[in-house]
Specification:
The protein has 2 domains: about 230 residues, FAD/NAD(P)-binding domain (3-Layer(bba) Sandwich); about 120 residues, D-Amino Acid Oxidase, Chain A, domain 2, CATH 3.30.9.10. The protein is about 35% helix and about 25% strand. The strands form 4 sheets. An 8-stranded mixed sheet has the order 7-6-15-16-17-14-18-21. A 6-stranded mixed sheet has the order 9-3-2-13-20-19. Strands 1-12-11-10 form a 4-stranded mixed sheet, with no helix packed on it. Helix 1 links the parallel strand 2 and strand 3. It is α/β, with parallel strands linked by helices.
């Protein structure tokens, strides 16, 4: 592959066309700030991968303010509660009532991505798919650059700033010298086998179920698509989970004493996700700023991954706009400090939800009694339900 001399220039180079990168590009465009978005996968891959689907109130509000929320308002499913289920009994957490009027919206991440891509292409903003960034340089200088392959050629893009929105396995985070950051990590002993089934949801609100056989979650994506998960061991393999076994476990773990039944349908997608928590501090180095999964990973129990990415972009976009429009760099310098309190709040909440709802395969009787006590307290105490509710819908800006 031939290397070309530097040939591109933009104000903000954005690595990754997930929700974080695309939303940042859109918010900057609205303020007349140029950016180039580079994504190593194809457009089809990015638009079709099924990921998160629960949007916090803050996320919904920002997408609407950014004029990319019209389809979400039409198709998104607004939920005012969730159910915690154990011992065959359901206990509703009245999210909106307990959080001062805030709610969640079920709207798939892939739909958010499509909306942002359509907006980007509508105004002709540079967005390159199958463009793999291979190297970042001069990050602590005045004009950082990145190199990427596209259409069989190497290109160099010089920028004022680089936003690393390319996920946990991307190239942005490793570009920061190891001695300039601190990494916090935790591997959980659990995984989730997830299925997307072509069947009307069996519930109007999400169900989080604790059962001796393992945790289960009944979520939904649309009036005709159900998203369901069962707990497995972290070292399990997807081949060990044929459709029949998944449905058998879902029926057992989601069972209710009142005769509620789970609807089955064709499985159109099956995944296995291992639970992992990760935070890097700081989330910036020189003129490189990390956002979303490039900077932090949370287990899916609390539905925080996409929402944290959007919160990062709220801060980063404001900081870049302040730099270009007002000549102020204080928000850029304080980017990590602004983001990290919400990230650690989400980590704590997710860790609590995960510990409470996932039986430990070690057969630790003491731990099981603690889980039972916590679940029973949640069922009895409005204050406990209020804590869950305000964290689940997303607390106002920290």
């Amino acid at each position: 592959m031939a290397f070309a001399e530097p040939e591109g220039r933009t104000q903000v180079g954005i690595v990754g066309a997930g929700p974080a990168g695309l939303l940042l590009a859109h918010l900057l465009h609205q303020q007349g700030i140029d950016s180039v978005v580079l994504e190593r996968h194809s457009r089809g891959y990015v638009e079709e991968r099924v990921r998160a689907g629960v949007l916090e109130q803050n996320t919904v509000d920002l997408l609407i303010e950014a004029d990319v929320g019209e389809r979400m308002r039409q198709e998104g499913l607004v939920h005012h509660g969730i159910e915690i289920r154990f011992d065959g009994e359901g206990h509703r957490i009245a999210l909106t009532e307990l959080s001062g009027g805030r709610s969640i919206t079920v709207y798939g991440q892939q739909k958010v991505v499509r909306d942002l891509i359509d907006a980007r292409q509508g105004y002709g903003g540079p967005l390159h798919f199958e463009a793999e960034v291979t190297e970042l340089g001069d990050l602590d200088g005045e004009q950082p650059w990145l190199r990427y392959s596209l259409d069989g050629n190497m290109h160099t893009l010089r920028c004022d700033f680089i936003a690393g929105c390319d996920g946990f396995h991307g190239v942005s985070r490793p570009a920061i010298p190891a001695d300039r950051v601190q990494v916090f990590e935790r591997a959980y002993p659990h995984g989730w086998v997830g299925i997307l089934a072509e069947v009307a949801p069996s519930t109007e609100e999400l169900i989080y179920a604790y059962h001796d056989r393992g945790f289960a979650l009944h979520s939904l994506r649309s009036p005709t698509l159900s998203r369901l998960y069962v707990q497995c061991d972290a070292d399990d393999e997807l081949d060990n989970w044929p459709d029949e076994r998944v449905w058998e476990e879902l029926h057992a773990r989601l069972a209710r004493n009142d005769g509620w039944t789970l609807k089955e349908g064709p499985v159109v997608e099956k995944t296995l996700a291992r639970m992992h928590a990760f935070v890097i501090e700081p989330m910036q180095y020189g003129r490189l700023f990390l956002a979303g999964d490039a900077a932090h990973i949370v287990p899916p129990t609390g539905a925080k991954g996409l929402n944290l990415a959007v919160a990062d972009i709220r801060h980063l976009s404001r900081a870049l706009i302040a730099h270009y429009k007002q000549g102020r760099d204080g928000l850029l310098e304080g980017y990590s400090k602004a983001c990290l309190p919400r990230i650690w709040r989400a980590q704590q909440f997710t860790s609590w939800m995960t510990r409470m709802l996932h039986p430990d395969r070690s057969d630790d009787a003491f731990r099981k009694r603690l889980q039972r006590a916590e679940l029973e307290y949640l069922a009895r105490s409005e204050r406990a339900r209020m804590t869950l509710a305000e964290n689940y819908v997303g607390m106002p800006e920290l």
